[in-house]
Fold this sequence. Notes:
The complex is a heterodimer.
Chain A: E1 3-8, H1 9-19, E2 24-27, H2 35-43, E3 50-53, H3 57-68, E4 74-78, H4 80-85, H5 87-96, E5 100-106, H6 122-126, E6 137-139, H7 144-161, E7 164-170, H8 171-175, E8 177-182, E9 204-205, H9 215-233, E10 237-240, E11 247-250, H10 253-268, E12 273-278, E13 280-282, H11 286-292, E14 298-303, H12 309-316, E15 323-327, H13 336-346
Parallel strand pairs in A: 2-3, 2-4, 4-5, 5-7, 6-7, 11-12, 11-14, 14-15
Antiparallel strand pairs in A: 1-8, 6-13, 10-12
Helix pairs in contact in A: 1-2, 1-7, 3-5, 10-13, 11-12
Chain B: H1 2-8, H2 26-41, E1 47-51, E2 66-69, H3 75-85, E3 90-96, H4 97-103, H5 105-114, E4 119-124, E5 127-128, E6 134-135, H6 154-157, H7 163-167, E7 175-180, H8 184-202, E8 208-213, H9 217-220, H10 224-238, E9 243-246
Amino acid sequence: xxxxxxxxxxxxxxxxxxxxxxxxxxxxxxxxxxxxxxxxxxxxxxxxxxxxxxxxxxxxxxxxxxxxxxxxxxxxxxxxxxxxxxxxxxxxxxxxxxxxxxxxxxxxxxxxxxxxxxxxxxxxxxxxxxxxxxxxxxxxxxxxxxxxxxxxxxxxxxxxxxxxxxxxxxxxxxxxxxxxxxxxxxxxxxxxxxxxxxxxxxxxxxxxxxxxxxxxxxxxxxxxxxxxxxxxxxxxxxxxxxxxxxxxxxxxxxxxxxxxxxxxxxxxxxxxxxxxxxxxxxxxxxxxxxxxxxxxxxxxxxxxxxxxxxxxxxxxxxxxxxxxxxxxxxxxxxxxxxxxxxxxxxx
Amino acid sequence: xxxxxxxxxxxxxxxxxxxxxxxxxxxxxxxxxxxxxxxxxxxxxxxxxxxxxxxxxxxxxxxxxxxxxxxxxxxxxxxxxxxxxxxxxxxxxxxxxxxxxxxxxxxxxxxxxxxxxxxxxxxxxxxxxxxxxxxxxxxxxxxxxxxxxxxxxxxxxxxxxxxxxxxxxxxxxxxxxxxxxxxxxxxxxxxxxxxxxxxxxxxxxxxxxxxxxxxxxxxxxxxxxxxxxxxxxxxxxxxxxxxxxxxxx
Lengths: 347, 249
């Protein structure tokens, strides 16, 4: 029986990862994600798991890499500056095709920035972030229930495609309490033929390809083939009141909730507006967005970052001249009133 | 005599092929020693290596065990991740001086300090080999390298860092020893030291650290014979060959 409980975003994330079969967590303290390692350090030993507080994010992502090499479900969580430090390890893991979950509870940047909610790591996450031609699978929830569902889904995708997956959301969702239904614990396996210790042939987890000369190119072509397959198979988004809409919001995470909340007021004022919310940020639901907003009078891209989500929106659609950007930077958040006034001024 | 026999036989765990290492390089000797010990303990199938960035990244071409390639300096973190999920397996982190004492200093210290039940094998040749002979954290004062053309200067580059002594300041490690592989006597001694370190890991005693002074004739600009002489006369002066800790007994 699935039960309904009130949970905060970060706790829901931690419990969902255990439900998804994760028993190995490696992390380093950074605000605003500290509830996750606190929860894991208490909870994992109860389910026979292992919690290690690493000496840095460099170490934690490489501990995840080592654990992933044995075929188990492992994860780390961090926030923006810590995720920057992990980019080297993520590039290696993408190159070696190691599945794991990386969680980024985004905060304001650049640099030390602040600890307020932000979405300014969008491009870093969806375009690569580290060196080389690679992609992470990136999902972004907008409710606590969706944190639960997408944590489990992200692990499943990571192992289906042998690729690191990232869940990213802003610091508001992290502390928001909402009722959630926790699903049943998953039965998982770890004896993948590519993992260490399978005993059949020598398994080498590698991203170095020197000879023959075209071996690295062939490996990259293989990766690109896989990314194309992922693009064909993952296309997550939600639409709200888009069928008759003349105007559209495109937003994800917390800003999408504020947009959604302002739709009723705007419609009462005669603005026929709907919301397109991408859930998979890579692959981006480009064709679905293009179809949805094809006849838009205006497309309001609302993000807590400057021209990041908007770049993918512009790449996806043919009517990019209809885009109106509305940004909050440096940890500032949108209010419903601000969004309503902005739309009224710009329609 | 048993030791000699083991030393001169081609171990089953060693893949028979020409190694890419330069003539006189210490890696090939150490690879062979490790492979022989894996045979002796019959642990080839349960041993995982973490290969470093550097000349030894291709060690999986020679030692027939499952292996993970580490980013530069991160081998002990990867070894930690493996060992925590597979405590019954044997995990060996094999690293050079730049890897272990420059870019990976934090991972080196903290993995030792947590007392991870792994074995770290540290090949110290006082230079960056793969990248063509730059100054390493263990380069001697006055030693000329590609990036210390006038010799390492104490005032601007600092003194060589001693890994065993650093790790010996921590509580958790179980076994710490520095060896060399310059003649048959020291090679046999090194074999016994490696064997002890791995035995302690098998017995779940905890973290073991073996430093091996090893030659890099190509980047030192010396013949293999003169290289060994330089280790015996100069390197061991700064890096004394001895046991630092043996809490496994």
